[in-house]
Design goal:
By secondary structure, the protein is mainly α. The protein has four helices and no strands.
Length: about 90
């Protein structure tokens, strides 16, 4: 099952895995995997994003608020993000 937000985030990350936008979105997604740790994310990093990428960051946070940061679509998207950023 595909998720439009995750698809859009993946497109940004896979297009330029080491760009500022990709790395900030990747860091946010990693943070959202760790709810028990309080989802610690330095919000000032949002300043490094343009308006479209900030919208994606907010959409990722909304996924977490709806409990959609788990399940098969999330796990698959996170694996692809890891692979893109880590070059694997």
């Amino acid at each position: 099952m595909s998720n439009p937000v995750l698809d859009e985030v993946l497109a940004v990350i896979e297009a330029a895995p080491h760009s500022a936008a990709a790395l900030v979105l990747y860091a946010l997604a990693n943070t959202l995997d760790h709810e028990r740790a309080g989802c610690l994310f330095k919000l000032t990093k949002l300043r490094d994003l343009d308006a479209d990428h900030r919208r994606l960051a907010y959409d990722l946070m909304e996924l977490m608020a709806r409990g959609e940061n788990r399940g098969e679509a999330w796990v698959q998207a996170r694996a692809r993000m890891d692979q893109a950023v880590r070059g694997g």
